[in-house]
From TrEMBL:
One Pfam family in the UniProt entry: zf-HC2
Source species of the chain: Hymenobacter negativus
Domain Putative zinc-finger per the UniProt entry, residue ranges: 9-43
Protein name: HEAT repeat domain-containing protein
Domain of life from the UniProt record: Bacteria
Coiled coil: none
Amino acid sequence: MKPTEFSACHELEALLPAYVERSLPAAEAERVAAHLPNCPNCQLQVTQLRALSDDLDAALPEIPRTALRANFMAMLEQQKQLLKPEADVPAPIQAPVQPEAKVVSMWPTAVASNWLRVAASIVLIASGVFLGRNLHWGNAGNGNVAATNPEKPAHVELAQALNGSKSRTVSASDRIQLVTNSTKAPQADDNTVQVLLNTLNFDPNPNVRLAACEALYRLRDAPGVREGLANSLPIQTDPNVQIALIDMVVSLRVHRAVPQLQRLAKKADALPVVRAQAEAGIGKLI
């Protein structure tokens, strides 16, 4: 591809989602339409965007009929009336509901173009739905995942809590909470960074690895974090974690990650959205 053609592709890339949705102004739509016949790369992206849009349309939930919703609301109101306490009996005091722990992204996402962020969000939302349906957040016992032992260094206690023991298996939700809380402790140090890097590279659950990514980003100024994030790129296979790591190393300007990004951009078994994200990251770091 000539330099002028690459520049045109890079400039028009952000317009492709709106072009597929037919929401571009006429002048820009004509510009994209004139560019597409001579650019196989942009043609491929348009094809992928259209397929993604069709999949989303097919996955939209069916809206219940008006009569069904009305009947449900009437039944709900009837049950609420039956559950009301008698006038002379005080209402029972309900225990406060503990909020669910959430993994919230802490790094900028300006690297990806609009359609890449849409695709990545769909993957993350699907993972969140699965996590919410299959995992129980927190410890049902006393509300603490692991009691703090002042006689043990923080990183030793964290590693032991994450690994569990032969008699006690640590659930994925508990490991996420442990990883998230590890950066809140005042004694978070280089050893804690190493434990988080081991979790990022070797934990079997992608949601735990994603939580470790975010914890390491919060410790981004600690020695070894940026190099560890770059070295983790070729290890990861889950698209959530791959996209998160790409965004992080680009946001932190980790130039030593360029070779790993180049290999990921050419990796045959990586998702197209991941390869495109890696290519965009290379352009930002070079």
